[in-house]
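Hello forum,

I keep getting stuck at the same step: I have a sequence, I want structure tokens, and every attempt I make locally crashes halfway through. Rather than fight my setup again tonight, could one of you with a working pipeline run this one for me? It's a single chain of 154 residues.
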Amino acid sequence: MKRYGKPNHIDLLHPSRAIWRNTLESCKLSHIEKNAISIVRIDDLPGSEAQARYFQFLGSGDPDELAEVFRHNEIDMLSLVTLAIRFGHLLSNQDVRHIVQQPCEPEEMVRTGLWLEKMGLFQYSAELFQVSGTYSAAEQSDAYAAGNARQENE
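Reply #2:
Ran it on my machine without issues. Output:
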């Protein structure tokens, strides 16, 4: 029997926090959906009620008890796919401005640039820093070192 390696795990919380931790109230999926990727849930079953619906289904045997749970999970999956596509395009190190919604607030530009720098992708991060009017972590470090050198020479 052919064995396959462990399945890959993609944790979208880390890049979400890296980009939106200073601009969103929370990095819960519901907040990211509403405020960052423009997904609006209408008449959605709260996830906290899914377990109760499942137990209702077990008691009644009526599959209609699960319809709202499946709809809630469908939106969760679509949101996660949207985030995966967004982050994947950003990590492609190509010009994806025509494909992916771009950060428009300075804080989000800076946080996205810092995340891309951390991933070793400097071209687009530099553009984001320039547009936002800030400097990259490397540029800030160089400026700090240059400032210290000037002070020592004075």
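The two ends are 73 Å apart (CA to CA). If your local run keeps crashing, start a new thread with the error log.
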